Amino acid sequence: MKLIRVENYEEMSSSAAQLVEQQILNNSHSVLGLATGSTPLGLYEQLIRGVSERGISWQHVQTLNLDEYCGLAEDHPNSYRHFMNEKLFRHIDIPLENTHIPDGKALPVEAECRRYEALVDRIGPPHLQILGMGTNGHIGFNEPGTPETSLTHCVQLETSTRNSNARFFSDRDEVPTHAITMGIQSILKSEQILVLASGKKKAQAVKRFLDGRVTKDFPASFLWKHNHVTLIVDQDAYSLAAAEEE
Ligand code: F6R
After folding, report:
1. Arithmetic mean of pLDDT over the chain
2. Which of 32, 151, 214, 222 has the fewest CB atoms within 10 Å of its CB?
3. Catalytic residue of the set 112, 117, 136, 234
4. Cα–Cα distance between 63 and 135 in angstroms, integer?
5. Ranges assigned E (strand) in the chain
C-alpha cells in the first residue's frame, strides 16, 4: 500500500485529481470507479477545472459508481445519480450514457444487483477506483460483517451510517434503510484503488486501517489484499496514526 500524506483537504483533492487525470491521459478510454459523499467533492471540483483549464477530455471515459440508495428515483435530490450529475457529470464532457450507477428503483432488487455486477465485468472493472472510508470502516455501503466474497448486493444500512448521512436529508427518517452497493469482491476487481481520507473524524478509521489487520469487522481492511492501493490522507485524518508512531 502506498501512503501519501498531505497537509489538508485541498491538497488531498488536488493530489487525487492528478492521479485521475494521469489515468485519463494514459488511456482516454479509461473506466473510473467513483464514489459519492463529502470526501470526493474537492476532487470533483478539481476534475471539472481539469476539463476547462488543462484540456482533459472525458469523451471516451466510462464511469461506474459504487452505490445507490434503494427507493430513490434518479431525479430525487438525495439520489446518488442526482449527486453525480450535479457535482461532476454535467460540468464535464462525458456523455451521460457512459456513466453508470445502480438503479435504486429497479425491481426486483436482486436482478438489478446481478445486472450491475455483469456491467462491472463487461465495461470494467475500473482501471482506477476512488473510495472514501466510513468512520466504521465501510467502503461503498459494505458495512462491518460483509464477507470478502460479496458481489453487488442490497444492504440494510447501519444506524451509524444513516445518522451520518442524515445531514443531506431534511429529516432523519427520510434516509433510506437500504442501498445497492458493489461488494468487497467487486471493488477488489479494480486494477488500482485510491482511498481518500480527510479530517479528524476519520482519524480513528485511518489508524485502524493502517494497523494492517484484515478483518470483516472493518471492511476497508480487505484492501490490504489488493496489490495496488494508494491512500491519500491529510494531517487531521492521520493524526491518531501519527501519535501511534511516536
Ligand atoms: C459513497 C460511499 C461511502 C462513502 C463513505 C464516506 O459512495 O460509498 O462509502 O465513501 O461513507 O463518506 P464521506 O465521504 O461523506 O465521509
Report:
1. 96
2. 214
3. 136
4. 25
5. 2-6, 31-34, 62-65, 67-69, 99-100, 128-131, 153-156, 178-181, 192-197, 229-234
Q: Which residues of 85-108 are buried (b: 16+ CB within 10 A; e: fewer)?
A: bebbbebbebeeebbbbbbbbbee
Confidence of residue 245 (pLDDT cuts 50, 70, 90): confident
Per-residue confidence (pLDDT) for residue 244, from 0 to 100:
80
Is 82 part of the annotated catalytic residue set? no
What confidence score (pLDDT) does residue 160 get? 83
Cβ atoms within 10 A of the Cβ of 29, count? 11
Q: Which residues line ligand 1 (CB under 6 A)?
A: 35-39, 66-67, 132-134, 138-141
Q: Which of 12, 32, 36 to mutate to test the pocket of ligand 1 (most atoms within 8 A of CB)?
A: 36
Give me ligand 1 centre to Cα 191, in Å. 20
Which residue is listed with cell 435530490?
77
Average pLDDT over residues 92-106: 98
Answer whether 138's CB lies under 8 Å from 151's CB.
no
Pocket test for ligand 1, best of 84, 116, 133 (most atoms within 8 A of CB): 133
Q: Which residues of 111-146 are buried (b: 16+ CB within 10 A; e: fewer)?
A: ebbeebbeebeeebbbbbbbbbbbebbbbbbbbbeb
